[in-house]
């Protein structure tokens, strides 16, 4: 079902303009190349509007936030919106500091976003429902999985309606919702959380999937999340086969390899998703 969106991405090779954090910039660029996109990481305020105008998608990531980034975020975002280019926001660490929370909220309120890619704590902080993020990680109470899958899907759907945009919320189970339909996606591996940048990579990859299939954004974003999770699980299996140990450095390389080698057919065969419709 979702493999067609990976195929479309590989056929089109869209240019993705990423203003992302300096910790994960290289991995984001390589992840985009691996799935078939073309990255450009321009962040000087004097050129971001021109670069955004050339792109198929724009990704804004506030991971290593500095005040001088703000003009770049808004310059690229406004130009993308003006041209109908999808913009994806990763509000890294929203809720951890006033600067992060205010920056994320400002971008969300001003820019008609195609998607927000985050964890549950970041999304709740963005929407003013508490600020319990632990740095860039979700708060312990937001990680709890005591509610049923349907109840959690309903929660994410309600948050998407409040955000008035599509959300991709990652955790033990990942959710992608436009407020009407919610995809619950199982996959990945806990080792992904021990490699910095896997969330940022997913945000960049989501931007590429949306750029290639703008008419079906929910399915395209779900395909991105499913692809990342599937590759995370496959990379772990290969790691144990090759080394018998859980080395995070080797895992990082194998994850990139899996992203590069994944086919549309393999994505179709590896899906583990449930789709929930809004009940009310």
From TrEMBL:
The keyword Transcription does not apply. It comes from the Bacteria. SUPFAM superfamilies: Ribokinase-like. Pfam families: HK. It is an enzyme of class 2 (transferase). GO terms for molecular function: ATP binding; hydroxyethylthiazole kinase activity; magnesium ion binding. Keywords: ATP-binding, Kinase, Magnesium, Metal-binding, Nucleotide-binding, Thiamine biosynthesis, Transferase. The keyword Transmembrane does not apply. ATP binds at residues 117, 170. Its EC number is 2.7.1.50. InterPro entries: Hyethyz_kinase (IPR000417), Ribokinase-like (IPR029056). It catalyses: 5-(2-hydroxyethyl)-4-methylthiazole + ATP = 4-methyl-5-(2-phosphooxyethyl)-thiazole + ADP + H(+). Its cofactor is Mg(2+). Gene3D superfamilies: 3.40.1190.20. Catalyzes the phosphorylation of the hydroxyl group of 4-methyl-5-beta-hydroxyethylthiazole (THZ). This is Hydroxyethylthiazole kinase. It comes from Bittarella massiliensis (ex Durand et al. 2017). The lineage of its organism: Bacteria, Bacillati, Bacillota, Clostridia, Eubacteriales.
């Amino acid at each position: 079902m979702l493999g067609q969106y990976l195929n479309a991405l590989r056929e089109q090779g869209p240019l993705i303009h990423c203003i992302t954090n300096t910790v994960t910039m290289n991995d984001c660029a390589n992840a985009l190349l691996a799935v078939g996109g073309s990255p450009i990481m321009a962040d000087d305020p004097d050129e971001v509007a021109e670069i955004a105008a050339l792109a198929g998608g724009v990704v804004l990531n506030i991971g290593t936030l500095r005040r001088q980034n703000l003009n770049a975020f808004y310059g690229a975002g406004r130009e993308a919106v003006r041209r109908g280019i999808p913009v994806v926001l990763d509000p890294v660490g929203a809720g951890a500091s006033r600067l992060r929370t205010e920056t994320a909220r400002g971008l969300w309120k001003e820019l008609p976003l195609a998607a927000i890619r985050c964890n549950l704590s970041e999304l709740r902080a963005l929407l003013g429902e508490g600020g319990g993020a632990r740095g860039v990680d979700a708060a312990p109470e937001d990680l709890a999985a005591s509610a049923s899958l349907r109840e959690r899907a309903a929660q994410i759907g309600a948050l998407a309606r409040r955000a008035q945009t599509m959300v991709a919320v990652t955790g033990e189970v990942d959710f992608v919702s436009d407020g009407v339909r919610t995809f619950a996606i199982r996959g990945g591996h806990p080792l992904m959380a021990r490699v910095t940048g896997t969330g940022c990579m997913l945000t960049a990859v989501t931007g590429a999937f949306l750029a290639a299939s703008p008419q079906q954004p929910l399915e395209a974003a779900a395909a991105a999340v499913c692809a990342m999770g599937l590759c995370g699980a496959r990379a772990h299996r290969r790691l144990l086969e090759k080394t018998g140990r859980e080395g995070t450095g080797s895992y990082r390389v194998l994850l990139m390899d899996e992203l590069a080698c994944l086919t549309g057919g393999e994505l179709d065969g590896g899906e583990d998703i449930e789709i929930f419709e809004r009940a009310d």
